[in-house]
Amino acid sequence: MTSPAATRLARLDALLAESPVIPVITVPELAHAVPLARALVAGGIRTLEITLRTPVARDAARAIMAEVPEAVVGIGTVLTPDDLQAAHDLGARFALSPGATPELLRAAAQSDMAFMPGIATPSELMQVLAAGFGIAKFFPAVPAGGMAALKALAGPFPQARFCPTGGIGEQDARAWLALPNVVAVGGSWLAPEAEIREGRFEAITERARRTLANLA
């Protein structure tokens, strides 16, 4: 019989296989949500992280799931068990956290939500692995040691895989993805908040296309 942890991991694996690049999205106003999601999907990027950083974030995720069915919506900046439950109740496909408290790990282990906890150190990674989570968000990726840190973690933790986020840009995404223990990269460069506020969605579509072309 497959364990809940294995089921969650398989679900997350499948989601990340669909897109090696996950835009980290902060939606400033609800009216921006659907046009932004459509712009990214038009550029070939379907897997989206909607961060819980603005008052409209939950409504934005709900609107995208209702009106852009091609999008695979995840909820980011999950900080508490309540945030995780909110992601589940919204119908999000996955959830991500910049870190991992014992309370959040316990709640995630009891949930069927595909969840990616955040780590920045070996000790944090050990706690995440012990809780049954084999894929972690490495955050903040560049300040926490960059590619050299992930190469070093591969030695004592060959089973761990990562989605680095924080300081990664269009020019170095390919180098990060070339690391054997990296399954995806996340970043806000795909949908800059200034372009969202200005309604420059064509620029976002073009950047998405260019990013995927550079990774091909």
Automatic annotation (TrEMBL):
Homotrimer. Its EC number is 4.1.2.14. Signal peptide: none annotated. Pfam families: Aldolase. NCBIfam families: eda, PRK05718.1. The keyword rRNA-binding does not apply. PROSITE patterns: ALDOLASE_KDPG_KHG_1 (PS00159). It is an enzyme of class 4 (lyase). This is 2-dehydro-3-deoxy-phosphogluconate aldolase. It catalyses: 2-dehydro-3-deoxy-6-phospho-D-gluconate = D-glyceraldehyde 3-phosphate + pyruvate. SUPFAM superfamilies: Aldolase (SSF51569). It comes from the Bacteria. Belongs to the KHG/KDPG aldolase family.
